[in-house]
Amino acid sequence: MKFLLLALVLISSISMAQSELNVQVLEYIDYGNSGEELDTPLSVVVTSADSGVPVCDYQVHFSVSGGDAELAPAEGFYTIEEESAQGLVVQTDENGIARINAELGKMGEITVSATVTDHSGMPASASFDFVSLDVRAIVFQIIGGLAVFLLGMQMMSSNLQQVAGNKMKSILRALTANRFMAITAGALVTALVQSSSATTVITVGFVNSALMTLQQAVGVVLGANIGTTITGQLIAFKITKYAFPMIALGFALSAFSKNRKRQMWGKVIMGLGLLFLGMTTMSGIMKPLRGSAPVREFFTTFSTNPILAIIAGTLVTVFVQSSSATVGLTMTLAGSGLIGLQGAIFLVLGDNIGTTITAQLAAIGSNRAARQAAMAHTLINVIGAFYFALLALDSDGFFMKLVRRTSSDAMRQVANAHTMFNIVNVLLFIPLVPALAKLCKIIIPSGDDDITDDDVILDSNLLASPVLALDNLDREMTKMARISGKGVCRAAEHFLTGKHTAKRIMAMEDRVDDMQRDLTVYASLLFKENLSYEQTLRLPVVLHTINDIERVSDHAVNMVEARNRVEGNILDSEGPLTVAAEKAFQVLKNMTEQVALALETHDLKAAQKVLVLEGRMNQIEEEARNNYSKSLATYGIANMRGLAILDFIDYCERAGDHMKNIAQSILGGGVWHGQEPGE
Question: Which DSSP symbol is given to 37?
């Protein structure tokens, strides 16, 4: 029992023992440049614990307990003992102060400890915490990390569009006036291509092409806002440590696989790996900044000012043209502790506003309906950002508490807040879609730029999505074929009966020439995009089809000129050539209708009918030529009227040859087979 009491007394006396000395840190700068000495030396003052009187001529041991730095005695002080490159002993002066210089090494947080030991062996210590900063490395790594992130996003998005192009097209084509289907389509397409900007630009292009109504477009935009949250959720899973294996796997698939689809999936995986690598690069450079008071104060002031944070988020997104990139950057700042959850939410709200600028830029030069669709996107995100900013103003309010409860991880909280914002915003606007469409029509009223059936709509914003750009070309080629067919049929009627004016027919031919120029330029621009193998084979056929359509129209000019050699209504006269001319006209008219139908719907039966009709046209032309030859042999003189009719039938036959080329390309699957189509 006595032994136990003695032990308790000893333990109590030891725990109550304190050093006779105090070590206090004097004022110092908490950051410096890598490779340079701190502007202000590190200083401590040693005082008596009882009286507070400074203790002179006492040894203070300085050591680097964290980070990379080299210590040296400050001017006027000298080293008693140099223990290592990272530790030394300095004598206090008459004021009890010991002072050293620190040369900073590689960037990061640094801790220097100052320890004294009293006569009884009890230690007392203090520490300095500061940051070694390399401004150039910070700038380069943030810019480089962001560039790698954007490269990965672009690679992933473009190849996902290639892989999922047809699915994306079918989803968007399935849109109806049902706003719920439109929202679902927008979310699915954005999730597929990993870019809300791409979806909204496509939507604006569809509205501009009159393939989608404004109300449908609003639904797609709402869905795109949900789909874009997928990227943030992927980042929040913290699978960035797999960045290099993903890059390696993606490269192996893209470089060594012979399967085209596997190659594109490899680029998708490699793009995702680059995205994570960019995040890791930016995150790694952010962490040392936490130890700098000025940096912390800057971000704290910056992020706690709602207006400033929202504006900053908007401007950064406008600059990098990717809300996913700025949301990822915001998550990195939050994960590094540089900004709080509240500030991160304000930045994310600004990101959502900034992403609407892409649609606004895409709508420049488009028609009124397309500009209204872009305006709807902006209104949805601006209104949503406004009321969510009000909810987030109270750091202890319901919304902020709800976000904190979703996860203990700061990055996950930001991703969840982003998802919650977009889902709630969509739910709010679903019943307001008709009202929002009306509001957009009030803001951007009707003008003189409404499109007509004959207007060519070639949206350059769709070039980044080749599957949709090719669809655009197909639609406009059909339009061109109908105008060309109408023109050549009017020219045929003009030759036979004098109906229609030459001026009107020539104007239609000029219109076809203009369409040929525009479609050819658009197709040439599409060659510069990242095309799939099938798309690469389709484009030459598209160009040949455009030329064939224009050549059909050229024969309308020949028919108008041939009319100058005849008078009256040719169909009123009798004879085998007149009958042949009327038959040729009927076959020509039927062929133009079937070609337009085949181009519009890729109807193989219609294309087959064109081939049958072309064979019939050849037969008519051959019979007419034989009849004309018999007439010459019988009468021995040339009939100028008969010669003009024969030329007319020849023009019909040549126009039929070009329509045959178009039909054969459709029957061949619309892809290039390595040889010129026949005349």
Answer: B
Residue 128 near residue 27 (C-beta atoms within 8 A): no
Q: What is the mean pLDDT of the chain?
A: 79
Q: Identify whether the C-beta of residue 175 lies closer than 8 Å to the C-beta of residue 209.
A: no
> Does residue 459 register a pLDDT over 50?
yes
We find that the CATH architecture of domain 20-133 is: Sandwich (2.60)
Q: Is the dihedral angle over the CA atoms 259, 260, 265, 266 positive or is it negative?
A: positive
Fold match flag (20-133 vs 471-667): no
368-427: pLDDT as tens digits: 777 888 888 888 888 888 888 888 888 888 888 888 888 888 888 888 888 888 888 888
- pLDDT value at residue 659: 93
33-58: burial string, b at 16+ Cβ within 10 Å, e else: ebeebbebbbbbbbbeeeeeebbeeb
172-209: pLDDT as tens digits: 656 555 677 777 777 877 776 666 766 776 777 677 66
* Angstrom distance (rounded) from CA 109 to CA 601: 66
Domain boundaries, the chain: 20-133, 137-443, 471-667
Q: Which residue has the tokens 């689809």?
A: 261
Give the rounded distance of the alpha carbon of 467 from its chain centre.
Answer: 16
Query: Which residue reads 């600004």 in tokens?
Result: 350
Does pLDDT of 124 surpass 80? yes
Residue tagged 């007509």 (tokens)? 452
Q: How crowded is residue 676: how many other Cβ atoms within 10 Å of its Cβ? A: 8
Contacts of 672 (CB under 8 A, 6+ apart): 537, 538, 539, 540, 541
Determine the Cα–Cα distance for residues 284 and 73; give it in Å rounded to an integer. Answer: 32
Question: Residue 288: CB partners within 8 Å, gap ≥ 6?
Answer: 107, 108, 109, 131, 132, 133
The domain 471-667 having CATH identifier 1.25.40.20: the answer here is no
Residue 283 has pLDDT above 70, yes or no: no
Q: What angle do CA 519, 531, 462 make, to 5 degrees?
A: 50
Task: Give helix 356-363 / helix 196-208 axis angle, nearest 10°.
Answer: 30
And the tokens for 57?
């001529």
